[in-house]
Structure formats: structure tokens, C-alpha cells
Design goal:
Largest sheet: 12 strands, antiparallel, barrel
Radius of gyration: 19 Å
Helix content: under 10%
Strand order of the largest sheet: 1-3-4-7-8-9-10-13-14-15-16-17
Strand content: over 45%
Number of helices: 2
Length: 268
């Protein structure tokens, strides 16, 4: 039932983006645009990086779930602009350090690197209704540590979108489907998000976000997420974020920070 509902939602989003307007920016204009990152929100950016550019997004998270503290970094996502509306994506394996024993399980899981993943992002908008929409597809490979890896080849689909409400306010969200391997079987998970962003000054934004995970074989996971980004320069960004939530009856909270930058590797 979850699978059918999630697929119908994705189909509705994709069908609603036609017809598309042919509004590709010139390469020079796109390259001079300010950096737009997929972090620190759960909701990805609805646009791709400029053609010929390389963007690296990095961060660190300190997470606490029922007394179990996990440190996670470097959260590196490398994005390469292949075409004006197409980018390649490389998800560098994170290192997870589990510091102590949690009250929920009584046992501290192991530490180590997670799985790497590769993917592609295709920008579909803007649409006649002023929405920017993209489609992201990626797959992870079981390259991580024994205690961290899913031990499977796990695909995912994401549809991030955004719409400017005014010169200062932006509404955004994302519909996602994940097929993680858990306990040797697929656990189809749907994830809707909704984000409201406010530009305080030209380089400084703040956001509030909801994200929920709803899977076939586990209870729901709900998250309230707050964050801010600051562009120290046009293609350099700092961020800070924090969140609280619940997962199968266990509460969790976290905070994190990051740094992202973009370089123009190929001139057109």
C-alpha cells in the first residue's frame, strides 16, 4: 500500500511539470550565479550546478538518540555540472563514530565508514507556474564497514521542488522513495518534506523544515529541523542546523555545521 501511494504521488508531481518552458540560462550567467546547495536541509535544491563546475558540500553532525551519541562526517557530496540542466553526483562515504552505549538498546553499534553512492540530477523546471523541479536518482554500493553498511545495492528517487512566494520567502519540498536493505530485505520508505525559507539579508537565509519517513517494516520517523546558511562569498557558504524528532518511540536530537564551495573547472 505504501509503495503504490508513494509512486502515485511521484507520478502526480512529474505529470504536473509539463509543459516546460525553454528558459535555459546562458553558461556565463549560470556560472556567475550564487552557490545553491543541497545542505543543510533534508530537502535538496531544485536546481543543478552550472555546467562545467564542481561543487563540494561538506559537514559534520553530532546526533544523540536515547543516550547513544554518534558523530558523522564529512557528509561530502560532490556535484559536477555535466550539461546546463544535468549534473553528476558522488556521495563520499561518511565515517560514523558511535561514542557510547545507548539506553534504548544497551549496546553501542560499531563505528566505521558508510556506503558510497553515485547518481544523477536532471533539472525539469522552471514551469509555467513558477516552480523549479528536479529529478534525482542514485544508487549506493555496499562498500562500508561491517557494522555500518547495508550490504546491498540500494536505489533511491527524489523529486525536489521550490516556489518563490516573494522576494524574501521561498516554499520548497521533496518527495522521495528509498529502497534500503535492512535485515537482508528491502524496506521501501517514502519521505515527504516541506520547507519554508526566509532571506534575512542578501547572503543570509534561515529555514524551518518538516521531514517524515514512512516505511513498510518500521514505525514512522518525524523530524522538525531548523537551520541557517550564510554566503561568505558568491561561491562559498557556511551553514548551521539543528533538529529534534522521534523514531519508533525513541526521541533524538542533533546539531551540525558545514562548508560548501564551487569552482568552475571547465570554461564554455
Amino acid at each position: 500500500m505504501l509503495g503504490c501511494t508513494s509512486i502515485v504521488l511521484l507520478a502526480c508531481v512529474l505529470s504536473g511539470i509539463s509543459p516546460l518552458r525553454a528558459q535555459d540560462q546562458p553558461a556565463s550567467a549560470a556560472a556567475s550565479a550564487s552557490i545553491a546547495t543541497d545542505r543543510p536541509s533534508v530537502t535538496d535544491s531544485s536546481v543543478v550546478v552550472p555546467a562545467g563546475s564542481i561543487q563540494a558540500e561538506n559537514g559534520f553532525v553530532d546526533n544523540n538518540t536515547q543516550g547513544l551519541r554518534t558523530l558523522d562526517g564529512p557528509e561530502t557530496l560532490v556535484r559536477f555540472g555535466l550539461l546546463s540542466k544535468t549534473e553528476l553526483r558522488f556521495y563520499v562515504p561518511d565515517y560514523y563514530y558511535n561514542e557510547n552505549t545507548g539506553r534504548a538498546t544497551g549496546v553501542a553499534p560499531g563505528s566505521g565508514f558508510g556506503d558510497l553512492a553515485i547518481g544523477v540530477k536532471q533539472q525539469l523546471g522552471p514551469t509555467p507556474h513558477g516552480f523549479d523541479v528536479s529529478l534525482v536518482a542514485y544508487i549506493s554500493f555496499p562498500t562500508g564497514a561491517q557494522a555500518i553498511s547495508s550490504h546491498g545495492y540500494d536505489p533511491a528517487l527524489q523529486v525536489p521542488w521550490s516556489h518563490s512566494l516573494s522576494s524574501k520567502w521561498t516554499l520548497a519540498g521533496m518527495l522521495s522513495l528509498y529502497w534500503p536493505t535492512q535485515g537482508g530485505q528491502r524496506n521501501l520508505t517514502g519521505e515527504p518534506t516541506l520547507l519554508l525559507d526566509r532571506q534575512l539579508t542578501r547572503p543570509w537565509d534561515v529555514f524551518v523544515e518538516y521531514a517524515g519517513d514512512f516505511s513498510e517494516h518500521a514505525g514512522p520517523r518525524n523530524l522538525l529541523h531548523l537551520g541557517t546558511t550564510y554566503k561568505v562569498r558568491r561561491v562559498h557558504q557556511l551553514d548551521f542546523h539543528a533538529g529534534v524528532g522521534s523514531n519508533a518511540g525513541a526521541t533524538f536530537h542533533f546539531f551540525g555545521f558545514g562548508y560548501s564551495f564551487r569552482i568552475q573547472a571547465i570554461r564554455h
